[in-house]
Amino acid sequence: MRSVCKWNPFRRLSKWVACCCIVLWGIGACNSQPTYQWHDPQTKEGLVCRQCEPGKFVEKHCTKHTPTVCKPCPGLYYTHFWNYLEKCLYCSVFCNSLEEEVQACNGTHNRACQCKPGYHSVSDFCVPHSRCPVGTGVTQPGNPLEDTKCAPCPEGTFSSSSSTNPCQPHQNCSEQGLAVNVPGDQFHDTFCTACRPNKPVGIVIRTDELSETEGCEEAVIDYIPYQIKAPRRLRRLRQRLSKSLLPTASHRKSVNQLQVELHSYLIQEKNTKGARDVAKKLMGALRDMKLQHILEKMQKHFLGL
Ligand SMILES: *[C@@H]1O[C@H](CO)[C@@H](O)[C@H](O)[C@H]1NC(C)=O
Ligand SMILES: *[C@@H]1O[C@H](CO)[C@@H](O)[C@H](O)[C@H]1NC(C)=O
């Protein structure tokens, strides 16, 4: 073949191209100029034509005497590979409302879309990223292809709401010159207090006594929710305080979640009605619910601060 080629290299274009490829294979020239078999309808001759590069299409196939004529694709059409197409391909991909365009339609590329920020792809649909449940934090934020990854909060950190954030470190009370009121866990922060009642052990703390010391009513509000460990009691207390029925979904919630929610509710109430009013109502509700042991525990706790 090689000798034939040398002997009469221009005898036939097809042979020449084929020979050229074999001869130049070693320096890779063939890779950059792919060819195709073409049967010339006029001369009935079998030819080897050059293909067109990406972004172009074959306007005219080669003949015995002329090379392939390639032409750039018109707007909204493309060819991605070396080709011998007589028409470019239509940019057929369209982004939907949950997607954004990451590749515009141009001569060499079809349009390409990916899920918008906040969404990822699940079998070709964009679905919102999951939030990490209470007590867990984001270890890897979601991206267009993958959902958020969550893990339980490690020692010394917490996440008190279903979120798209990593776990936060507990605050350090001693650094602020305060005492620990409620130690943090993976579901809630450490709560600090400046309350130091300094009463002799055994004396019943009443709300009017607590109010004499800075921050004690706030401390009661932070303390109580985390001392009640039965979901039923937490729900009943919350109902009694808010004087309304809770949505049935609350029956599926964990103790930790109910504690955090009761606490949030109390903080909200405190911000509108004042700490004194809320602490008083809270202690009254515990008495009515015959939860004396919680009140006793609280007295001991505050006297020990
Ligand atoms: C089309 O876009 C791609 C990347 O976005 C780029 O690499 C390529 O050169 C573009 N093609 C044309 C013909 O502009
Ligand atoms: C709080 O900070 C102090 C001083 O920086 C440190 O010794 C102590 O271990 C910290 N406590 C916690 C619970 O991180």
How is this fold's topology laid out?
Layout: H1 2-7, H2 13-24, H3 29-32, E1 35-39, E2 46-50, E3 56-60, E4 69-72, E5 77-78, E6 89-90, E7 99-103, E8 112-115, E9 119-122, E10 125-128, E11 136-140, E12 149-152, E13 157-158, E14 168-169, E15 179-182, E16 191-193, H4 207-210, H5 216-223, H6 231-242, H7 255-273, H8 275-288, H9 292-304
Antiparallel strand pairs: 1-2, 3-4, 5-6, 7-8, 9-10, 11-12, 13-14, 15-16
Bound molecules: 2-acetamido-2-deoxy-beta-D-glucopyranose (NAG) (2 copies).
The site of one 2-acetamido-2-deoxy-beta-D-glucopyranose (NAG) has 3 residues, from loops.
Name the features.
single chain, 305 residues, alpha+beta, Tumor Necrosis Factor Receptor, subunit A, domain 2, two-stranded antiparallel ribbon, two-stranded antiparallel sheet, 16 strands, 30% helix, 20% strand, rod-shaped, disordered N terminus, binds 2-acetamido-2-deoxy-beta-D-glucopyranose
Model description:
- Among the domains are: 2-69, Ribbon (Tumor Necrosis Factor Receptor, subunit A, domain 2), CATH 2.10.50; 170-304, no CATH class.
- The protein is built from nine helices and 16 strands.
- The protein has helices spanning 2-7, 13-24, 29-32, 207-210, 216-223, 231-242, 255-273, 275-288, 292-304; strands spanning 35-39, 46-50, 56-60, 69-72, 77-78, 89-90, 99-103, 112-115, 119-122, 125-128, 136-140, 149-152, 157-158, 168-169, 179-182, 191-193.
- The strands form eight sheets. It has a two-stranded antiparallel sheet with strand order 1-2. It has a two-stranded antiparallel sheet with strand order 3-4. It has a two-stranded antiparallel ribbon with strand order 5-6.
- Residues 55, 103, 106-109 line the site of one 2-acetamido-2-deoxy-beta-D-glucopyranose (NAG).
